[in-house]
Structures
1.
Amino acid sequence: MKINYKPKYFQTYELVPEWVYNTYGESSLRFLDNRILKMADLLREKFGKATCNDWFWGGDYDSRGFRPPNDPDGAKLSAHKRGQALDLIFTASAEKIRQYIIDNPDEFEYITLIEADVNWVHISCENVEKLTIIKV
């Protein structure tokens, strides 16, 4: 299966849970919207190294990218479960990055929703009219 967009800065196993990667391998990327992958790469170019899931290296995070429908984390209709959202940790502060996105929405054309007041950068490419900021 040929993937439409392969991220430059993220390995597939960083974006999906361990069992998904072990089952589908590199084709796991098909579960992620190419727009969110492009925005993750753009943010990585702008702000440096970012971490999504770290299970591959023995860490605790395995559902900060794609979450299968039966994943207990998050809401039933979460953008993560549609492959349209990522939670990223950068060296730069999450607030600084969120503010940059808010101040420069045209630079991140596919980011339509960000989450405020969390210590990670939640981005999603949901079908909303303009950049939306939510508080959970």
Note: Residues 110 and 125 are 6 Å apart (CA to CA).
2.
Amino acid sequence: MTDDARETRHGPGGGIWLAFVPWVLFSLITQHDTLKAAAVIALIASVVIAAPSVAAGRPKMLELGAVIAFVGFTVVAFVADPSVTAWLARYARAIAALLLALIAFSSLLFVPFTEQYARESVPRQFWSTPRFKQINRQLTLLWGCVFLVMMVSHVIAGAIDTRRGNTIFNWVVPIILIIWAVKRTGELSEAA
């Protein structure tokens, strides 16, 4: 490897963390407010975040997926029967985590979603290298698996439906998973 290749991170750039903001807002707001409020705020955030990449002609799958997901949540929150919205509010985090997993895994069929962000911080000369491709496939798979485990944790929280269950399975477990995944992302990116 050249010195330039060793100094270049092959993992996602900083923009990926911004792309997760609507999902985080949705999780936080569903805990403290209505599903309608959470869906609308997450939708607005996702549109604002996706707009620059769409306007530049380089839409990112994670950002577009967020817009579509929160349009869906918003429509259901406003038109569904109250019993449906009550169930949806209980399992909204699980559904959001499942949607994130689907976005991650489906992006492996085309361009891994982490690669779209890695291109923001990696020189173009490395984009087609086998190492760059391999690391981003690994990172996308890692995050997809984290989202699946988070989904299971959120389902458990919804099924238990207690304050302690909510704290452990909607917050503690997902936060530990995210911290681990962020650390692992950094390790994989630096190993390149």
Note: The two ends are 10 Å apart (CA to CA).
